[in-house]
Design a protein that fits this description.
Radius of gyration: 15 Å
Shape: globular
Helix content: 10-25%
Order of helices and strands: HEEEEEEEEHH
Oligomer: single chain
Distance between the termini: 17 Å
CATH architecture: Beta Barrel
Number of helices: 3
Largest sheet: 8 strands, antiparallel, barrel
CATH class: Mainly Beta
CATH topology: Lipocalin
Structural class: alpha+beta
Amino acid sequence: MEIRPKLLFKISICRPNVLALGMLSVFIFASCNFNKNKNPMLGNWYGYEEDSTYYELYVNDSLIVLHHQNIGPMGYDYTIDGNLLVVSNEAGMERVWQVLDDTEDTFTLTDSLESIKYTRLSDPMDFFKSIQDSVSYKEFKKGFYSRFSGKNKAK
């Protein structure tokens, strides 16, 4: 059985250079103009695809990193305009989502193709801080695989 998650962009073929570009994007911080309001999406989140595939989303002030078991972490630049989230990648692909604030610990992204609910991770370890140190990143990856295994069994 082949798992083909829809993720943020449809990825039909996972090439090594796609992963390398994704990881490179993690280290490149683009400057964005944000409202003075605190961005409620900042932090680490998890969600499920319709087929119960588990993945995580890490958000800082300029970058969203999508982490999936089969693809690994992939970075996307984003901007927020009101309740719209505009996500783009280096290939020039862009996707616009409507952000629905459910609670402090959940939010939903919706567009004409799908609606995905995200829940805040209770793990105190932060993805963006972990990539600054190889030992911390190794621990973060270990935690991801543990959460992935536990959440997929639970679904």
